[in-house]
Amino acid sequence: MKRFAMSAILAALLAAASAAATSIGRRLNVAQTRRAPARSPPRPLDRPRLGADPGYTGFEDLAGKIVFNRLHVMGSLGKAVDTVRTQEHRELVASGDETLKGSKSLWRYSQENVPERRRDEFDALRRKAFKVGRAWAIKESLRRLWHYVYPASGWQCWKRGYFWATHSRLEPIRTAAETVRRHIDNILTSYQHPVTDAMSEGLNSKMQKIKSMACGFGNLENVKAAIYFHCGGLGLYPC
To answer: Residue 65 needs a FRET pair 20 to 30 A away by CA distance; which of 96, 189, 208, 239 works?
Structure first.
């Protein structure tokens, strides 16, 4: 009886192992059939696609064609102004002076965009010998880089603004000016190539909003469908 019981148990174990191996094999076969087919490597562009000139590749003088976006340059300077304001406000509050309280948004405006209802308040703050007032004035002077047409005029504006920033004894402004100096060549190329990435930034912002509203997508095809639906310019009005 014991031998019979042991042989029955052994047979049951062998049957279970065989069934498990069969199930695993089926899963592997299904996974292999569902696997996407291998894509062939992209074909290199032939010469007619690159242009009529046999020597044209489109990559000559690439460094001279790069343009740094004005938005990011002024954003760096704006953050430096806000850092100066934060540090100075902390020092004034420690001595019992709250003059700069509630003025955070004012220093973020450009000169022509200050709201009319707060213009007198802002002019009064600027007349006082605050560090943030100097930092804001330096930022505004460097903003004029994009007001010129000729590169020589832009270089003169940059030299004046850079000298002022590096001799202002305001460390955040000096650091931001050094950052701009490292990329000034490709900032001033905007005179030859007046392009921005404003359209792509706006489109990217809209796509991120679509993803946020959907709270996630199950697959990439649904993402594409939603982007085409909202950004594809579909005419959904009845005829």
So the answer is: 208
Say which residue the tokens 């000139």 belong to. Answer: 53
Tally of CB atoms within 10 A around 188: 19
Q: What is the pLDDT of residues 144-194, one digit of tens each?
A: 988 888 888 889 999 999 999 999 999 999 999 999 999 888 888 877 777
Measure the CA–CA gap between 170 and 138, rounded to whole angstroms: 11
Angle at 143 between CA 178 and CA 98, to 5 degrees: 85
What residues contact 192, with CB distance under 8 A and at least 6 apart? 64, 151
**For the range 174-179, what are the long-range contacts, defined as Cβ-Cβ under 8 Å and sequence gap of 24 or more?**
175/80, 176/76, 176/77, 176/79, 176/80, 177/138, 177/142, 179/76
The domain in which residue 91 lies consists of 65-191
CB neighbours of residue 168 within 10 Å: 18
Number of structural domains (the chain) is 1
Question: Three-state DSSP class for 63?
Answer: helix
How many H-runs (helices) and E-runs (strands) does the chain carry?
10, 0
